[in-house]
Amino acid sequence: MTLATKKTEDSEAITATSPGNGGQPQASRLDTSGNDDGFEVFKKEDGAVDFRTVDWIPASVIFLKAIFATGVLSIPSALFVLGALPGAINVVGWQCLNTYCAILQGNFRNRHAGCHSVADMAQVVGGHWLKEVVGILFLVTWAIASASGIFGTSVALNTLSNHAICTNYFMIVATVAIFVLASVRKFEKIAWLTWAGFLSVYIAVFIVVIGVTTRDRPAAAPQTGDYELGYHVIAHPTFAAGITSVATIFSAGAGTSAFIPVISEMRKPRDYNKAVYLSMAIVSASYLTFSLVVYRWCGQWVASPSLGSAGDTLKKVAYGIGMIGLLVSACLWIHTAAKYLFVRILRDSVHLQKNSAVHWVAWLGCTLSISTVSFLLATGIPIFNFLVALCGSLTFAPLALGFPAYLWIHDHQHYRNGGKWRVAIYLLHWLMILLSAFLTIGGTYGVVRSIVDAYANGDIGGGFSCADNSGSA
Question: Please, what is the angle between helix 84-111 and helix 118-161, to 10°?
Fold first, then answer.
């Protein structure tokens, strides 16, 4: 790229907000430092609440916790459906693609620094109607993801209490706890929670990984006589089962839309890429190693969530430690969705950064509403893998794969008229959009088909029932 081209790209229009346009995007010039308060949603002003307090290391931990939770607990059972080799290829391939899409989103946001969320970015490239579509997708995405966190927490409470009360009551307990945690107002203030949450899940999964390798046979397998492990290098699933497992693996690292609101609260938004590379490298390596080991030793007897794969004693230990991480994951996801609503409601209002009654009523109302919707989803689709896969196909595919590709296309139209290499890159981004469309349509069909079959076969005791449907689907 020539210096002249670089300067041209760096001077592209960015979005900013002003009281005079009702929070709509306004053309301005790029601030190359990424720190111009005139463009950022949250301003550094005397007497105002300072939201921009997150450094890049805490940001990387927030990113880690946003994606390293339910994914690592669902991938081993997805490997059983696909086989070890196709499963491993899916893990590596999707994680690389998810990392690239995260960088695309962050770079676009820093070129258009008035954007607080992917919905704001959608308005830049497609106008008001696309903003509303993407905004709805964003809310649905994190409501479903939060539902998986609520469900996972209820499984932990069931395990630790030997199913002492109805599962739905445990879900209520989990939802209330998550609502309280999610209502902490700033990402900086929940940073310590993300540290604790990440370490708790990581340690819990590591305990299970060690535990399954010390057993003569899987805990869920018959403990006497012959048994079939069910380990396959290459499996031969039906389309519905296969695409559901692919969507599950993709979903495990596709929560990158949650990264964007964090940029608005970073001290230096231009440090975003460093935080992404660090977090995604750790997540990718962990997903691949942990899931392959658990599947190799458990085969078809792997539990979902996978924390239950090493026997009753280690199951209680793992859930006791990992429950913090499940709570924090759902807390972070609800916080992210609520922050989008909150900024959308109070943007360009004096109450956005003022400790007023309107400020707090709006904020708590947002966290409560998202928590309630997530609770209803968790009780209505009570199988863990299906919640994760539904999130991957229905919302993550268009939001975390197709949309970032279109953001790049919007800002790089000149690649169409470049050399063969630039044209090839341009076409590859359109191919990403086609891939996201296939995963959305095919994946959603597969998940819905799997849910219908599970109800028909009695694998699900019924939505809103007291049955514990934590087993593998």
Answer: 140
Amino acid at 304: S
Span 79-98, pLDDT tens digits:
999 999 999 999 999 999 99
- Which pTM value belongs to this model? 0.81
Which domains does the chain possess? 54-457 (1.20.1740.10)
Pairing of strands 26-28, 14-16: antiparallel
Backbone φ, ψ for residue 468 (5° rounding):
-95, 105
For every residue of the chain, which 3-state class applies, written as one string? CCHHHHHHHHCCCEEECCHHHCCCCEEECCCCCCCCCCCCCCCCCCCCCCCCCECHHHHHHHHHHHHCCHHHHHHHHHHHHHCHHHHHHHHHHHHHHHHHHHHHHHHHHHHCCCCCCHHHHHHHHHHHHHHHHHHHHHHHHHHHHHHHHHHHHHHHHHHHHCCCCCHHHHHHHHHHHHHHHHCCCCCHHHHHHHHHHHHHHHHHHHHHHHHHHCCCCCCCCCCCCCCCCCCCCCCCCCHHHHHHHHHHHHHCCCHHHHHHHHHCCECCHHHHHHHHHHHHHHHHHHHHHHHHHHHHHHHHHCCCCHHHCCCHHHHHHHHHHHHHHHHHHHHHHHHHHHHHHHHHHHCCCCCCCCCCHHHHHHHHHHHHHHHHHHHHHHHHCCCHHHHHHHHHHHHHHHHHHHHHHHHHHHHCHHHHHCCHHHHHHHHHHHHHHHHHHHHHHHHHHHHHHHHHHHHHHCCCCCCCCCCCCCCCC
Nearest to 62 by CA among 165, 243, 184: 184
Around Cβ 252, how many Cβ atoms within 10 Å? 31
Q: What is the pLDDT of residues 259-294, one digit of tens each?
A: 988 888 888 889 999 999 999 999 999 999 999 999
